[in-house]
Write a structure and sequence with these properties.
Order of helices and strands: HH
Helix content: over 70%
Protein name: Group-specific protein
Radius of gyration: 14 Å
Keywords: Membrane, Transmembrane, Transmembrane helix
Largest sheet: none
Shape: elongated
Strand content: under 5%
Distance between the termini: 14 Å
Number of strands: 0
Structural class: mainly alpha
Length: 66
């Protein structure tokens, strides 16, 4: 159950922070609506992963002490 909490919390927090970053840099790209642009896709995924991974590893270290 703790694994689920860590993953869900990480996704939720990363989504909120990455949305804030997208707003601050004025990135309005939706993969499913807009025409595919490799640069915008890479930027979109890169920002999300650069936010998600540190949060996930931090929460995993703090909450999953074994």
């Amino acid at each position: 159950m703790k694994n689920f909490i860590v993953m869900f919390s990480s996704i939720l927090i990363a989504s909120m922070i990455s949305d804030l970053i997208y707003f601050l840099i004025d990135l309005n790209y939706n993969l499913f609506i807009d025409k595919f642009d490799f640069l915008l896709f890479t930027l979109d995924v890169g920002i999300y992963l650069s936010v998600f991974l540190p949060i996930y590893f931090l929460l995993r270290k703090l909450l999953l002490k074994e």
